[in-house]
Amino acid sequence: MSVIVVPDVLLTLAREAREQAYAPYSRFLVGAAVMTKDGRRFSGCNVENASYGLCNCAERTALFSAVAAGCRPGDFEALAVIGDTPGPISPCGACRQVMAELCDEDMPVWLGNLHGAVQETTVEALLPGSFRLATAG
Ligand SMILES: O=c1ccn([C@H]2C[C@H](O)[C@@H](CO)O2)c(=O)[nH]1
């Protein structure tokens, strides 16, 4: 079964998740939301730490929540991300690699900001030639 997902639904979820961000160090709040092909939705925010390298981005929080609920590569339909950026937010390299592992290459990714900007891209466009192991999947 596959569902039709529109950007607005996921961007709204991402915006709501952003309100939960724990970002006392950067003060840069980010929200993300992912929808599965069978219609389940998972959201996430960035979670920072005094040991800065442990900070987790909103995109990975959302995707890892989905995996913790049983989702696996191939299960995802779309992802949305929102941050307070002048233009559409640009996911970091680590999150692009995680998307490449878990999501289909042609899966839509909607990148927004608080002012209504929305850029549609894909997992492959965000990270061409991502690292893969033959054993994954
Ligand atoms: O796409 C992005 C970019 C940054 N951050 C977080 C990481 C860190 O907590 C803060 C500043 O980089 O924003 C995200 O969650 N997603």
Automatic annotation (TrEMBL):
Keywords: Hydrolase, Metal-binding, Zinc
Cofactor list: Zn(2+)
EC number assigned by the record: 3.5.4.5
UniProt xrefs under Pfam families: dCMP_cyt_deam_1
SUPFAM superfamilies hit by this protein: Cytidine deaminase-like
Recorded catalytic activity of this chain's protein: 2'-deoxycytidine + H2O + H(+) = 2'-deoxyuridine + NH4(+); cytidine + H2O + H(+) = uridine + NH4(+)
Job of this protein: This enzyme scavenges exogenous and endogenous cytidine and 2'-deoxycytidine for UMP synthesis.
Homology family: Belongs to the cytidine and deoxycytidylate deaminase family.
Protein's UniProt name: Cytidine deaminase
Upper lineage: Bacteria, Pseudomonadati, Pseudomonadota, Gammaproteobacteria, Lysobacterales
